Each structure stands twice: as structure tokens, then as C-alpha cells.
Amino acid sequence: MQPDKEFAMDAARDFLADTAVFRLSGDSEARPEPKRERRRYRTIWISDIHLGTKGCNADMLIDFLDSTDSETMYLVGDIIDGWRLKKRFYWPAEHNDVVWRILKRAKRGTRIVYIPGNHDEMFRQFTGLDFGGVEIRRKAIHDTADGKRLLVLHGDEFDAVMLAHRWLAHLGDMAYELLMGLNRWVNAVRRRLELPYWSLSKMAKHKVKNAVEFISHFEEVVAEQAGKRGVDGVVCGHIHTAEIREIEGIDYYNDGDWVEGCTALVEHFDGRMEILHWAEEMALRDAVAEARAAA
Ligand SMILES: [Mn+2]
């Protein structure tokens, strides 16, 4: 092993030990994987999980991971919220279970590419290395089954270009945290009333004109930059807004988040792309099971 790689591995081990990420619940997950038929996809993209924060919807993500499989899986950044963890340590068993499931996927043969984002940028120093079958990369090129070249990156690299909107992003951050707190309350009540999961900020985002402008501007900037790099399309995360949209001949894909939207981007075996809204998928599955039980 090269000395700098050795150094990086030591640093990685120190970081993981510091944040206690991999030593909290022994050597396996708290909740075993159920034996369930899995939907198979060619590719899965997920991002903005924010493990280590209360906002993370780990339960729903675990359900998603237990229900799907793919040849390749991209983790498109903000998987672990390193900055938040440094401020206040928060790491429940379900967050460990997410990490275990991803590592087990790699062991079973799924190619896993991890592209750290701005909240887990401490992992960017390990770009080029592989940990337990997980490739850490700054960005990636994905070739779809129908011959399209897609640039895959987190998306914060365009924050500088979005400078004009930065004050809004800041304001947005505070409002967002407030909203997330409210979102948890609303859904705790809804759960008790046996009502389905409902995304408050998803609604708010679409109601607030500025936020809508910010999002569409971000999408245009990302698509334009991707076009300059000569690819057919781009996959990113970062703004927690799932989308499939063509912008001036460039395919723009955003896989959303697992804080409130709970979405994943998938590629079918024929190259067709789709956004899965997991709360809806779970509700549908429950309705089918209920109907079967009643029949
Ligand atoms: Mn981000």
C-alpha cells in the first residue's frame, strides 16, 4: 500500500472511531433483514439521508433497502451528517442498520459508489479509496442501458454559482429546520390517527414562490454545467427536491432525500428512469395486503 493511502486509511479509521459509527451495536444490525421479494433495478440513486440527525427517516429507508435490489447503487452525498454529529452526537440503532444494509449489499455483489456531499465532506479526503466494497468518488459517469452518459455528483459544487440566492439558502436553512420539527410533530399525530405520512415542507416549498424559483434556477445551472461537460444528463441531490426534467436538451435528475420527501431515483433494465416515492409505495403495499386479507 502507498504511504499516502495508508495515512488516509488510518485517518478514516480514526474518524469512524471518533464518531463511533461502526462500533455501537456490535457486528450486525439490530433489526434483521426480512425475507421479502425484492424489486430489481439496474441502478438506484439515493442521497441526502442525513444519518446522525433526528430528521432522518431511517425507518422508511430501511423498508426501501429491504424491498429493492440493483446491480449498481450510487450514494449521492449527505449520507451521514458529519457536521451535525460533531455538534451533538445522535446515532440510534436504525442509523446503524442503514449502514449495515449498505455494506451487506456491497458484499452480496452490488457495485456501490459513494459520492460524499457537503454534510459528509470529511469523506471527500478518501476519494479514490474503497472501504468494504464501497468506492468513494468525487463524481462519477454512469452509462445507462439505452446508451446515455450521465454525470453523477452531489450538487453543492454549484453553490458558488448560486451566490445570488445564498441569503435565501440561509434563510431557507433556518425555516427548514423549524419546518422539519413541525413535520415530525404533524406526522407523529397523523400516525396516531392512522393517517398516511405527509410532507409538510413539500407542500410549503411548492407554495413559496422564492423557493420554487431557487429550485428551478439550481436545476438550470446544474443542467447547463453538465452540458458544458459533454454528457447527456446529470444526476444530483443536495436541494432535497426529486425531479426528472429535460432542460435545453440535457436530462436533469434529482433523487430527492430521506428527510421528508423519502424518494429514490431508479433505472430500469431498459434504461427507463423513475422516481420512487417510498411513502406512497408503502401505503400501496399496505392497502393491497389489507384487501387480500379481507378477500
Ligand atoms: Mn447537500
UniProtKB/TrEMBL annotation:
It comes from the Bacteria. One of its GO terms (molecular function) is UDP-2,3-diacylglucosamine hydrolase activity. Residues 42-241 form the Calcineurin-like phosphoesterase domain. Keywords: Cell inner membrane, Cell membrane, Manganese, Membrane, Metal-binding. It holds the Pfam family Metallophos. GO terms for cellular component: membrane. GO terms for biological process: lipid A biosynthetic process. InterPro entries: Calcineurin-like_PHP, LpxH-like, Metallo-depent_PP-like. This is UDP-2,3-diacylglucosamine diphosphatase. It comes from Parasphingopyxis marina.
